């Protein structure tokens, strides 16, 4: 009987350990955004630079900033390459992004051998970016480099960018190259 009790205790302890270990594997809040569901009526809410980087997880969704964002820490991201542009030549941003008048400050991107560099690297004609300011950006790329968008096929409205943007061709403070609309 004592042997059976010891075995049951061991199984119980092992089960408890396994349960605790498994629960630690899943974060309590697994959502990568501050709120919303990505629809036009309830866009994903962005409140941190990490959440802003998560836009790459759904390039066709709807997003909005809910506060200013300090992006100065991106200088230390990705072994010095900084923030990874949202969208590229293979996976383009096709959603909407409403900055609601907020600013993103100190965004750093250093990709001297890459094209399509900006907060948004490449956007489709269906994309809409509006009401956002980028302040004190520091960006380097090759071709199609812009503070807000590297290559824009979509619509950009009431947005601005200040800082340093460097590239070899099709480089601009707001947009590197645009076949879309800028208002």
Can you describe this structure?
This protein is α/β, with parallel strands linked by helices. It has one domain (2-182). Helices cover 16% and strands 33% of the residues. It has a 6-stranded parallel sheet with strand order 1-2-4-8-12-16. It is globular.
Would you spell out the secondary-structure blueprint of this structure?
Layout: H1 2-25, E1 44-46, H2 49-53, E2 62-65, E3 69-70, E4 96-98, E5 103-105, E6 108-110, E7 120-123, E8 128-130, E9 133-140, E10 143-146, E11 149-152, E12 155-157, E13 160-166, E14 169-172, E15 175-178, E16 181-182
Parallel strand pairs: 1-2, 2-4, 3-5, 4-8, 5-9, 6-9, 7-11, 8-12, 9-13, 10-14, 11-15, 12-16
Give the termini separation.
82 Å
Number of individual domains: 1
Mean pLDDT: 89
Largest sheet: 6 strands, parallel
List unreliable stretches of 5+ residues: 11-30
Let me know the number of strands. Answer: 16
Strand content: 25-35%
Helix content: 10-25%
Looking across the biggest beta sheet, what order are the strands in? Answer: 1-2-4-8-12-16
Radius of gyration: 22 Å
Task: Please work out how many helical segments DSSP would assign.
Answer: 2
**Structure classification:** alpha/beta
For this entry, what is the oligomeric state of its chains? Answer: single chain
* Global outline: globular
SSE succession: HEHEEEEEEEEEEEEEEE
């Amino acid at each position: 009987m004592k042997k059976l009790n010891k075995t049951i205790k061991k199984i119980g302890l092992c089960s408890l350990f396994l349960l605790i270990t498994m629960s630690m594997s899943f974060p309590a809040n697994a959502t990568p955004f501050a709120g919303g569901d990505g629809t036009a009526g309830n866009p994903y809410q962005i409140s941190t630079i990490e959440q802003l980087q998560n836009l790459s997880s759904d390039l066709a969704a709807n997003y909005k900033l809910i506060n200013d964002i300090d992006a100065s820490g991106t200088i230390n991201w990705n072994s010095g390459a900084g923030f990874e542009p949202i969208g590229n030549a293979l996976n383009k941003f096709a959603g909407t992004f409403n900055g609601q008048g907020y600013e993103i400050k100190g965004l750093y991107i250093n990709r001297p051998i890459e094209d399509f560099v900006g907060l948004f690297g490449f956007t489709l004609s269906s994309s809409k970016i509006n009401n956002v300011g980028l302040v004190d950006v520091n960006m380097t790329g090759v071709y199609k480099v812009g503070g807000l968008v590297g290559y824009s096929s979509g619509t950009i409205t009431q947005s601005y960018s200040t800082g340093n943007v460097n590239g070899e061709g099709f480089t601009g403070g707001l947009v590197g190259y645009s076949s879309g609309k800028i208002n």
